[in-house]
């Protein structure tokens, strides 16, 4: 069987600043349409359509710069078929999410970090619903525009819209999407993705440096060997006041917690 490459292209563009009011205002390069047609929050227009692409392998990430645009590419390999721009902008989490073709099964590069002032990282995630998706974590307010085409998905990002939070806290084995540090309440929903040993994800709260045994819980992520696996769990109750939430795993060598710890204030 002969395979053809699919490429997921992400273009990041700076839009004109209306306050400059003159010819000195930068113009978005051709193809960077998010500045005028981008989504500030929610699903892209093609989100409800089925994806007929048969890509089965995702390759590496690349980033190139062209004037004020950044283009990130994630290679996908497999038979032909029209790709569909299924995805959404989860603005409250600072994440642009694109769903990958349904036959995807092999991941060559599960994540990457970018040295850039608009986007910090990308993760290929195996969801709890058995779908694969790629999350792009943005670090500045942006507008997003996704388009489907034969053999590829395209996404433009341009500065604009409301504020986005600080990028999700992460460690080598955990990315914590929810909660973020600060005020929270019970029951506490804990969501993210992990590459912990055998997909076992643990969580607990500590107060004054001591773990609160009643809050210790665990769950199984959707993956760990192929790529990042989505997880979700709930801590129904616990201590009030200033606490720390840990999410991750205990080292098999010495029991040391390995993962993400964030401060919270509970009522």
Please work out how many helical segments DSSP would assign. 1
Question: What distance separates the N and C termini?
Answer: 60 Å
Any idea what the shape is?
globular
Q: What's the number of extended β-strand segments? A: 21
Q: Indicate the low-confidence ranges by residue numbers.
A: 1-26
Q: Share of helix among residues?
A: under 10%
Average pLDDT for all residues: 83
Q: From N to C, what is the helix and strand string?
A: EHEEEEEEEEEEEEEEEEEEEE
Total discrete domains: 2
Using only CA atoms, what is the Rg? 20 Å
Topology:
Elements: E1 4-12, H1 34-37, E2 42-43, E3 57-66, E4 69-78, E5 87-90, E6 95-99, E7 106-107, E8 111-113, E9 119-126, E10 132-138, E11 142-149, E12 152-159, E13 174-178, E14 182-183, E15 188-194, E16 200-207, E17 210-211, E18 217-220, E19 228-235, E20 241-250, E21 257-266
Parallel strand pairs: 1-12, 3-7, 9-19, 14-21
Antiparallel strand pairs: 1-4, 2-5, 3-4, 5-6, 6-10, 8-9, 9-10, 11-12, 13-15, 15-19, 16-17, 16-18, 16-20, 20-21
Describe the fold and architecture.
The chain has 267 residues and is an all-beta fold. The chain has 2 domains: 4-159, no CATH class; 174-266, Immunoglobulin-like (Sandwich). Helices cover 1% and strands 49% of the residues. It has one helix at residues 34-37, and strands spanning 4-12, 42-43, 57-66, 69-78, 87-90, 95-99, 106-107, 111-113, 119-126, 132-138, 142-149, 152-159, 174-178, 182-183, 188-194, 200-207, 210-211, 217-220, 228-235, 241-250, 257-266. Strands 2, 5, 6, 8, 9, 10, 13, 15 and 19 form a 9-stranded mixed beta sheet that branches. A 6-stranded mixed beta sheet has the order 7-3-4-1-12-11. The longest helix has 4 residues, at 34-37. The model is unreliable at 1-26 (pLDDT under 50).
């Amino acid at each position: 069987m002969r395979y053809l490459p699919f490429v997921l292209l992400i273009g990041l563009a700076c839009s004109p600043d209306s306050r400059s009011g003159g010819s000195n205002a930068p113009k978005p390069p051709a193809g960077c349409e998010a500045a005028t047609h981008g989504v500030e929050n929610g699903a892209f227009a093609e989100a409800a359509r089925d994806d007929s692409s048969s890509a089965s392998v995702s390759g590496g990430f690349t980033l190139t710069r062209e004037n004020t645009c950044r283009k990130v590419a994630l290679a996908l390999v497999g038979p032909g078929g029209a790709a569909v721009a299924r995805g959404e902008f989860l603005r409250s989490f600072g994440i642009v999410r694109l769903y990958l073709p349904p036959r995807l099964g092999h991941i060559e590069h599960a994540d990457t970090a970018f040295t850039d002032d608009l986007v910090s990282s990308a993760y290929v995630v195996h969801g709890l619903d058995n779908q694969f998706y790629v999350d792009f974590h943005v670090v500045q307010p942006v507008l997003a525009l996704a388009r489907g085409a034969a053999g590829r998905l395209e996404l433009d990002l341009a500065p604009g819209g409301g504020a986005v939070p600080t990028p999700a806290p992460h460690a080598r084995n955990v990315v914590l999407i929810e909660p973020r540090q600060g005020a929270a309440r019970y029951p506490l929903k804990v969501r993210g993705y992990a590459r912990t040993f055998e997909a076992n994800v643990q969580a607990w709260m500590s107060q004054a440096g001591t773990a609160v045994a009643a809050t210790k819980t665990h769950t199984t992520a959707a993956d760990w060997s192929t790529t990042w696996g989505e997880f979700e769990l709930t801590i129904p109750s616990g201590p009030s006041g200033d606490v720390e939430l840990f999410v991750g795993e205990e080292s098999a060598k010495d029991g040391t917690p390995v993962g993400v710890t964030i401060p919270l204030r509970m009522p």
